[in-house]
Amino acid sequence: MHYISTRASSGNPPERKRFCEILLEGLAPDGGLYLPEYYPQVDGAMLTKWRGLSYAGLAFEVLSLYIDDIPAADLKAICDKTYTEQVFGTKEIAPLRPLESGLYLEALSNGPTLAFKDMAMQLLGNLFEYELARRGEELNILGATSGDTGSAAEYAMRGKKGVRVFMTSPNGRMSPFQQAQMFSLQDKNIHNIAIDGVFDDCQDIVKAVSNDLAFKRQYKIGTVNSINWARLMAQVVYYFAGYFQATTSNAEKVSFTVPSGNFGNVCAGHVARSMGLPIEQLVVATNENDVLDEFFRTGIYRVRTSADTIETSSPSMDISKASNFERFVFDLLGRDGGKTRSLFHDQLNSQGSFELGADPAFAMAAGRYGFVSGKSLHADRLATIRDTWQRFGTMIDTHTADGVKVAREHLQPGVPMIVLETALPIKFAATIEEALGQPPVRPAGFEGIEALPKRVTLLPADAMAIKQYIAENVH
Ligand SMILES: *Cc1c(COP(=O)(O)O)cnc(C)c1O
Fold first, then answer.
1. For residue 198, what pLDDT is reported?
2. Which of 35, 71, 434, 460 is the most buried (most CB within 10 A)?
3. Distance from the CA of 152 to the center of ligand 1, in angstroms?
4. What is the CA radius of gyration of the chain?
């Protein structure tokens, strides 16, 4: 399997790379995102065989279709080590629970940081350790987080050989639970840096440090952001796992609803569907930051400025642009890299938007690719959390509530609807209290974490200070 950039075209011929080459890379050199040259197809016989596999076994089968530069026995060992009951809480890893008739929740949030990002990040940690050891190299991951991504990365990389994490976050702006999760880590290779500023300051610092190419090379700076293909590929697995749990034969179809921000999670659903998994619809659920809902309704993709990005009670979906969206548009345009480049590079940079409504390709988003969308507001979240608690005794988090609300608008008779549960309620306690008048359930093992000793360094919002801190801490 080779990987190409979404911006490759005849004027800009594709550089074909293997999996382990793109594993440690972010964007392709031409500014595009990596995708496999084609989507391997699954047939009925494969689905039947896969139906009986454990989650780790299923992960190995899916990953083997995309990775051919890691020996099979090693890849199998990595999958077995990653997807364990000990790390993810259940034997099923991603168990399906019925809510009302025809509607299911797929639990993806029982990993170490209680959000779905663990599903991919835990694998990434083991892949990084493996590949760095094989090359005899080291990597210093520099990131910015306002919550879920940073903690998932830290719990995936803690104690891993050859990797250090330098994670910046806006001082005092994460929830107390999220701060406790990250700052209580005592591993020597994990560095929490609280920045005297807001999230945008953290992101600007990461950009500034990464743009200093000499520094980047000398200190082997890398990232783990959501555009990494390996993360997306790992997420494909739970679409298969959800399908097998909701059906008894391969003749059945299901739909998925995905609480969405950067379009990483639902893009994995698009990949699964493109491989031949019988998915009827992929329902994109957004919050007040409705960049994606607007696109699927109108064909207009209009990125927001930071000033136009609203702070909501489902904060992990508060995005101004959807960083993985380019992958889907590349497929939608018949994999025309020149056209993709002109939309995402030229038009977005000059106008901040592009419009596909009049393009014949746009109709295929719904028709051929099964995409529909909807949006959920703060009041919808509260009502959905309350209703789900009162009628089913199930407490869901604010992001999952956005999913359940939008899923109900797209139910089709005879087609099970699976809502991906992207976090547990304890992470967003204030809104749960607002909805239910009682604090969220705290999973076992998280009692009193707010009182644990914290390991964090406070630095000014200044790239020089961060560079100096990294230079002093890479030994
Ligand atoms: C990251 C995240 C999302 C959004 O996922 P994308 O892949 O960015 O679309 C939704 N919910 C939660 C809880 C998250 O952490």
1. 83
2. 35
3. 12
4. 21
Contact 304, 289 (CB under 8 A): yes
- How far is CA 240 from each of CA 58, 122, 133, 383, 471, rounded to the nearest angstrom? 8, 18, 31, 31, 43
How far is residue 158's CA from residue 150's CA, in Å, rounded to a whole number?
12
What does the domain layout of the chain look like in residue ranges? 92-113+229-436
Q: What pTM value is reported for the model?
A: 0.96
Closest to 435 (Cα-Cα) out of 369, 388, 374, 368 = 388
Instruction: Work out which ligand 1 atom sits closest to the CA atom of 262.
Output: 8
Distance CA 384, CA 405 (A): 6
The DSSP bridge pattern shows strands 139-144 and 163-170 to be parallel
Q: Does domain 92-113+229-436 have CATH number 3.40.50.1100?
A: yes
3-state secondary structure of 192: strand
What pLDDT does 29 receive? 86
Determine the residue of 399, 426, 427 to mutate for testing ligand 1's pocket, defined as the one with the most ligand atoms within 8 A of the Cβ atom: 399
| DSSP letters spanning 78-133 | HHHHHS-HHHHSSSSSS-EEE-STTEEEEE---STTSBTHHHHHHHHHHHHHHHHH
CB distance 286 to ligand 1 below 6 Å: no
Q: Does residue 313's CB lie within 6 angstroms of at least one atom of ligand 1?
A: no
Catalytic positions are: 117
Task: Give the tokens for residue 406.
Answer: 């939008």
Residues of the chain predicted below pLDDT 70: none
Q: How many beta carbons lie within 10 A of that of residue 367, not counting itself?
A: 9
Answer whether 422 contacts ligand 1 (Cβ < 6 A).
yes
Asked if residues 419 and 246 have their Cβ atoms less than 8 Å apart, the reply is: no
pLDDT at residue 270, rounded to an integer: 98
Distances 217 to 96, 211, 212, 431 between C-alpha atoms, Å: 44, 10, 9, 43
